Amino acid sequence: MNDNLTKKSTIPLPGQRIFRSLIAILLCFTVYALRGRRGMPFYSAIASLQCIQQYTRSMRPVARRRVIGTFVGAAWGLLTLLVAMRIRENNVPDEMLHYFIISLITAVVIYSTVLLNIRDMAYFSAVVFLSITINHIGDANPYIFVFNRTMDTIIGVAVAELVNRVHLPRMRNTDTLFVSGIHNTIFGMGEKISGYSKVELNRLIEDGCQFTVSTIQTPATVRELLPDVDIRLPVIAADGTLLFDMKKREILKAVYIEPETVRQLSAFLDEREVEYFVNQTEHNMLIVRHGEMRNEAIRAIYDQKRSSIHRNFAPRREEISENILYFLLADEEEKLRRVMEELKGQPWAANIRVTYDRSQSHDNWLCIKILPANSSQEQLQQYLMDQIGLKKRVTFGNQPGNCDVCIQYTDKDRMVKELKRRFEPVDIRGWRSIFRF
Hints:
Blueprint: E1 3-5, H1 16-34, H2 41-51, H3 59-89, H4 95-115, H5 122-133, H6 142-165, E2 176-180, H7 195-206, E3 210-213, H8 219-225, E4 235-237, E5 242-245, E6 250-254, H9 259-271, E7 276-282, E8 285-290, H10 296-305, E9 313-315, E10 324-331, H11 333-344, E11 352-356, E12 366-372, H12 377-388, E13 392-397, E14 405-407, H13 414-423
Parallel strand pairs: 1-14, 2-3, 2-13, 8-9, 13-14
Antiparallel strand pairs: 4-5, 5-6, 7-8, 7-10, 10-12, 11-12
Helix pairs in contact: 1-2, 1-6, 2-6, 3-4, 3-5, 3-6, 4-5, 7-13
C-alpha cells in the first residue's frame, strides 16, 4: 500500500469544536424553551462555550470550577441584594452607596476564589456577582433571579458535558503501529506543528492510537519540534540508531559504530581537516562531543543548539571509540562531497552509511551524518512492534516508495487527518464508542 497525497486547494472545513459549540448553544435554547422560558439562555450558552474543551479529559475540571465559581458569585450576589433590601427599608436610597458596596464585595468575591483555590475562576465569579447585583438591585424577590442564574450555568455545563462526550460511531485500530516522519510530513521544513494537529494527535493517542515518530533527528530535537504532543511510545531517533522513551528519558536500544571503525573514521577525517561532532551514549545519556570548532559551520550548529536543556555538549579531550552512534560533519559542500568520494574507497567503508541532513544544512555548507551500516529506522520500528506485541504497521513520510502513506505538497494538517481516518474510521459497528465516559 502506498498512497501519494497531493496538494488540494480547498478552504479548511470547520473543526469539531465549532460544530460542538453550535449544537451546545442550540440545546441551551431548547432547554430554555422547555423550562417555560424561565431564566436567561445567554448565561447557559456562555457556560457551555467555556466548557467545550479540546480534550474530553480536560472538561471535567473546567466544568467543576465553573459551577463552583458560579455558586461563589451567586452566594455573594444574594447576600448583597439582601443588604440592599435592608438599606431601602431604612430609607437610605443612595445609589452611590449601592455602587460602593458592590465594588467592595467584588473584591471579596475574587478573594474567595483565592481561598477556594479556583483562581482561574475569579473572573467568572465576579461576572456572576455583577450580573446579579447591578441589574437586579431593586428586585422584590432576589431569590428567584439568583436561583435562575445558578440554574442557567448548571444547564450550560450539563449541556457541554453531554455534547463533549457524544461522538460518531468509530472502530479503533489499536492493533496497528502508526509511524510518522516529522519534517515535510507532520509539517513543512521551517514550520511548526499546527494547533489542530497537536490537539488531534493528543486526542488520538488518548483514545488508544499506537503512534510514534521515526526521524533522522535526535530526541532533543523531537521534543523541540513536537512540544506538548503526548508521545507515549518510544521514538525511533537519530536515523535508526536510537530507540528512546520520551517519558522516562531512557535509551531502550542503541546501534553503535564498531570501535575500530570509529578510530579509522576519526583518523580519516582528521587527516583531511574535516571537523565533526560525535554523538555518544554514556550512563543512559546522549552526549555530543566536539573538537576545537574552528570552522564556521560547526560553530554555528553549536551556538544554535547549546542553549537547549535537552542537549549535553562536551569536548573530546581524549580518543573515544565506545558507544558511538554517529558522526555529524558540517563544512563547505564541495569539500565534503570530495571527502565522501574518498571515503567510499576505504577498506572499512562497508561498516558505515552516509546520509545528508537537509534540516541542518545551510546555503554555505552541508551537513552529513555517518552512521553504522547495520542501523535503519525500519529495523527499530520492527523491534518496537515486537516489544509491544503489534503485527501491523502504517508509516507516513514524504519519500514515495519508502512509506505506506506519502505526504507530498499537502496542507500542514494532512498527515494527522490521514492518521485519524485510518485509526478510527466511522463505522456503525463501533456504536459502543458513541458515548465516552
